[in-house]
Amino acid sequence: MASAKIPITLASYRERMHQFLYVEEEAQQELVARLNLQVQGTLSSKVQTSAMGMKFEAQGKSHVKGRIPCFLTPDTDQGSLLSRAVSTAYVAPIPAPDNRVYEVQVKVKTTSELSVWLLLPAQYCSALRLEDGDSQLMEIQFQIDRMVFGKWHQAIDALHNERVVVPNIPACSLPSLTPPTQEIFCNAKQKQAISYITGTASGKRQVSPLLIYGPFGTGKTHTLAWAALEVIKQPNTKVLICTHTDSAADVYIQEYFHVYVTTGHPEAMPLRVKNIESSFHETDPTTLQYCCLSEDGCSFRFPTQDELEQHPIIVTTTTSSHNLHVPPGFFSHILIDEAAQMLECEAIMPLAYATLDTRIALAGDHMQSTPKLFSVGDRKSADHSLFNRLFQYYQQETHQLASQCRIIFHENYHTTKAIIPFVFHNFYGASKIPIEDSGIPEHPWQYPLMFCHVFGTPEKDMSMASWLNKAEIEEVIKRVQEFYQGWVYQWGSPDQKQICVVSHGSQVKRLKEELGKEQLREVVVENFENVPGREFRVVILSTVHTQDSLLSNSATHLEFFNEPQLLNTVMTRAQSQLVVVGDLTALCAFGHCREIWKNFIQKTFEQGNVLPTYLKMKDVEQSSLLRLAWQNRLTPGTAARENFLEKEDDYNVITSRVSDSALSGDDPILQELLDEGKNVAEIVPEN
């Protein structure tokens, strides 16, 4: 879209935002429109869940189950849309007795890799003369769920004043920078950010939104949490904290506010607002104490106006903030974390409650997971976040105030020193990393990066929608036992909750079961989508797939092989130890992340931290030969999949062949991070 290169102005803001959503919706609809499937559907009064393969009564309604072609796996664009953005479909029998087409619901939670389930009202079954067990050839046309786009359009229209997101910098004021009123462990940059958020403005002029950019572990959440606690000491203040994910929102409760409230500050009691559809049983007990619960205490509800007024701090996600229904100006401060991980139309949802007097701060890292868009390339998706747009808007502004309302964090406090260079080199493109000693203790005799080669034989679960690798599960259990039983005193008291195992799909469920059998029930086992914002002493990553399963047309969940930003997010959850369990040749030969995996495994070889010990670096080098062999024997079906795995034009994959200047020149935010690092006393080379 040509207009995308034209800067957004105050006058064009709403029109441009609406136009972007129209283009994105059209791009998604065009992809889905190609899904004109002809399938043999079977009518059933019972529906099968994808999670457990179990069948349940459909309560008086009938379902049609149809087989999905192999090219609609969740790893393809169309398959991804089918799994997350499709709620209805048009259905017509073949041959059609008349011109009627029926609109039916797509049961997303029961749809699996191989099958789609459609909910048919009784009158449709009657009109089609279908009974339980009957089979019928049908044409299906899937439809995009326009409710999501409707909410985003509504968020654009709900903005009280466009100046909130397109500030006139020369006309804005700088708040008085006052030091915190209580002892807070913060560096100079973090204190500067807190002062900006808590300081008083001169006159009635607007204070520009504060932007805090920092890579992993630089204390962005820490800063926003303590800023909120400082703010509520002032009269007539109320803070809204929004994140992109529920897991990140829960961190504010678990690690900051709960401790503060229970150590003599009951006046700071926060309110955690969760979506009513959130899983109650997967929410930790500490967070539940601060949630709005139903009368039976078994589900979530949205807060009342009285509850919102009673609590000084409200914590929720940007999407759930849509349900608060308070007037503009209700919150004196709105703080948005993970701001680079969400589209601008999502980030502005809580800003419907902002006026020009509202103090706003956004924190983020655009090199972590960014929104999936279908109208632009993957490398451009981050530019459609409010965080990135404002950051570049400030960079282009010549007024001196523009440089004072963006702050770069570069000191890492959450990760041991040996992990930081690897991450910076491979995900941020920096061969020299500006860091100071974080003080996070390493294992006294084991290098912080570890690789365990496990080939195994991946197999599908009961639903045929996900994969299991039993050999990897066995290896993961060994590593968990090794670290827990041999817990080193430098890490404090042994704590199973400080070990996190990350994987996907059914591998997560099986890992939980098997660890429970070994009396390791408190070890955190999570899908990769649930770890943003969290930190653990030890992170163990199970990648599941092998070279054989990757060549299968039905291989799903390839994020660890294909998505560098997601891999960055997962790896940087580790404080002291990062262990990867997987197939060496598959990781080094397939997908957009293969160069990152080569660098990771090479580093572990150099440090002698590879299992089994008989493996040699030449095994990694042979992956390129294996790759050629695969390409020579590809069938037409697997060739299409290989092309999908290999398309890299739009992926921000950073390898040792990419120079700092080449990468940062293409990314003005990264360039500013590197420039900021020149003033740091200690420069640590990658090697």
Task: Bin the strand percentage.
Answer: 15-25%
For the largest beta sheet, what order do the strands appear in spatially? Answer: 11-12-10-13-14-9-15
Q: Which fold does the CATH topology of the largest domain refer to? A: Rossmann fold
End-to-end CA span: 42 Å
Give the biggest sheet: 7 strands, parallel
Domain count: 3
Number of strands: 25
Contiguous uncertain segments of 5+ residues: 49-60, 109-113, 632-664, 681-687
- Helical percentage: 25-40%
Which second-level CATH architecture of the largest domain applies? 3-Layer(aba) Sandwich
Query: Judging from the principal axes of the Cα atoms, what is the shape?
Result: globular
Description of the molecule:
The protein has 687 residues and is of the alpha/beta class. Helix content is 34%, strand content 18%. The protein is built from 24 helices and 25 strands. Strands 11-12-10-13-14-9-15 form a seven-stranded parallel sheet, with helices on both faces. Strands 1-4-7-6-5-8 form a six-stranded antiparallel β-barrel. The chain has a six-stranded parallel sheet with strand order 21-20-22-23-17-24, with helices on both faces. Helix 1 packs antiparallel against helix 4 and helix 5 (188-198) runs parallel beside helix 6 (220-231).
SSE blueprint:
Layout: H1 13-33, E1 36-44, E2 46-48, E3 55-57, E4 62-67, H2 77-84, E5 86-93, E6 102-106, E7 115-120, H3 122-128, E8 135-144, H4 146-158, H5 188-198, E9 210-213, H6 220-231, E10 239-243, H7 246-261, E11 270-272, H8 285-288, H9 305-310, E12 313-317, E13 333-336, H10 344-347, E14 359-364, H11 386-396, H12 401-404, E15 406-408, H13 419-427, E16 432-434, E17 449-453, E18 459-460, E19 467-468, H14 470-485, E20 499-503, H15 506-517, E21 524-527, E22 536-542, H16 547-550, H17 559-562, H18 564-571, E23 574-582, H19 584-589, H20 594-606, E24 610-611, H21 617-632, H22 636-646, H23 660-665, H24 668-677, E25 683-685
Parallel strand pairs: 9-14, 9-15, 10-12, 10-13, 11-12, 13-14, 17-23, 17-24, 20-21, 20-22, 22-23
Antiparallel strand pairs: 1-4, 1-8, 2-3, 4-7, 5-6, 5-8, 6-7, 16-25, 18-19
Helix pairs in contact: 1-4, 5-6
